[in-house]
Write a structure and sequence with these properties.
Elements (H helix, E strand, L loop, with lengths): L3 H11 L4 H4 L13 H12 L5 E12 L2 E13 L4 E5 L6 H8 L7 E6 L2 E2 L9 E4 L11 H11 L4 H14 L15 H13 L5 E5 L7 H16 L3 E6 L2 H7 L2 E6 L2 E6 L1 H4 L2 E10 L3 H10 L2 E5 L2 E6 L1 H13 L3 E9 L2 H10 L8 E2 L2
Parallel strand pairs: 3-8, 3-9, 6-7, 7-8
Antiparallel strand pairs: 1-2, 1-4, 2-15, 4-5, 9-10, 11-13, 11-14, 12-13
Helix pairs in contact: 1-6, 5-6, 6-7, 11-12
The chain binds adenosine-5'-triphosphate and magnesium ion (MG).
The site of magnesium ion has 4 residues, from helix 4.
Length: about 350
């Protein structure tokens, strides 16, 4: 079987990176169809923009039961081309509302967003975007394969490339094994993979994924991560919202934390995490009795092949080193542990000022 990477090679040799964008059935200002070259150069111009995503004072206020409710407050965010950014926040933090504004599904109350330098209110901004919704709804009677053909057409994939693009998208999203089953008969996790395939079929440069791992079992989550890793290695820009902090930590270059519509932190995991007062100690050649003694000094201790890996505080480190020396075991390393992203998230959110309650609409 030909791999998706090989298939991709065939396609990229035949077409420009913005093949899907270049063939969009759109019109110019005068209502004339835009020629392929013009459209392609529009895509390339867009690529030369400073940021893949930029928001300036992006704000959305809803009116709910005669009350103003600001879901997103003055959001200023930039995502560089080729970056993978995780958008983290609790339920109701404003992630989906932000994504909907980026894609012009809803208009901002104030502020603006740009995708590759093009205002998000312009259809051209979406030409390089693949979007995976939080709650995908697809016609139940269609198969993933049929759905992909429809989405490929919507994304402007040239007919001669469609079959290959559909195969690549289904394979990349690991949805190829059930491509001929009606969508109504798929599990939630399978439907998620179809939603990812749908986002990939136009070979977009920018992927906006709203909770791609939602509803996936642990194995499927690992698979999803490896798919995102592969997309990242292809140079795609990925903006994904998530609750799975561990996953985000493993894949994202930068992480944005949003809480009650306010951006509280934005940076690389290294920038956001602080040193803890915990130390990780690795030892080798410890006899069972040494291991038992070591366990009493550590908050956690596990075996990793021939090595013991323990976590302890500063005092525990000194005692453990003395114990290992006394029992003739070897100390391999000691390192100070950094916070996990989950700890960062909880710390930042716990220290956030509480927001004003909703005010009455006129
Ligand atoms: N159409 C709407 N009308 C009124 N309020 C809305 C609307 N859409 C969203 N909200 C409110 O805006 C806030 C942010 O919602 P949003 O869907 O952006 O959260 P989220 O971070 O995506 O949460 P989740 O993790 O649960 O998906 C919530 O308080 C929600 O009730
Ligand atoms: Mg959401």
């Amino acid at each position: 079987m030909v791999s998706s990477a090989t298939k991709l090679g065939h396609l990229t040799a035949k077409s420009a990176v913005f093949s899907a964008a270049s063939a969009m059935p759109c019109t110019s200002g005068e209502g004339q169809p835009i020629r392929k070259e013009e459209n392609l150069s529009q895509g390339i111009t867009a690529m030369q923009a400073q940021w893949a995503i930029e928001t300036r004072d992006l704000t959305k206020t809803f009116i709910l039961r005669k009350q103003f409710h600001t879901a997103v407050h003055n959001l200023n965010l930039t995502v560089a081309d080729g970056e993978t950014v995780g958008f983290l926040g609790a339920n109701g933090a404003g992630k989906t509302t932000t994504i909907k504004m980026l894609l012009d599904f809803i208009a901002p109350t104030r502020g603006q967003a740009w995708l590759y330098g093009i205002p998000s209110s312009e259809p051209a901004a979406r030409r390089v975007v693949g979007y995976m919704p939080e709650q995908p709804y697809f016609p139940r009677y269609l198969t993933p394969g049929e759905l992909m053909y429809a989405h490929a057409a919507l994304a402007g994939v040239p007919p001669r490339e469609t079959k290959l693009r559909v195969e690549i998208a289904l394979e990349m999203a690991r949805a190829d094994s059930f491509a001929h089953r009606p969508i109504g008969k798929l599990s939630k996790g399978m439907t998620q993979r179809v939603a990812l395939a749908q986002a990939l079929v136009g070979n977009p440069h920018l992927l906006i994924l709203d909770e791609p791992a939602s509803g996936l079992d642990p194995v499927a989550r690992v698979e999803m991560r490896s798919v995102l890793q592969a997309l990242k290695e292809q140079g795609k820009t990925i903006f994904l919202s998530s609750h799975h902090l561990g996953e985000v930590e493993l894949i994202c270059d930068r992480v944005a934390i949003i809480h009650q519509g306010h951006l509280l932190a934005y940076g690389t995991p290294e920038e956001l995490t602080q040193q803890t007062d915990r130390f990780v100690l690795v030892a080798e050649g410890a006899a069972p009795q040494t291991e038992r003694n070591l366990r009493s000094l550590c908050s956690s201790l596990r075996r990793d092949g021939t090595q013991l890996v323990g976590v302890t505080d500063e005092r525990g480190v000194y005692d453990a080193i003395a114990l290992l020396r006394e029992h003739g075991a070897r100390l391999v390393s000691v390192s100070q542990q950094r916070e996990t992203l989950e700890e960062v998230f909880l710390r930042i959110v716990a220290n956030a000022p509480t927001t004003q309650p909703a005010s009455k609409a006129a």
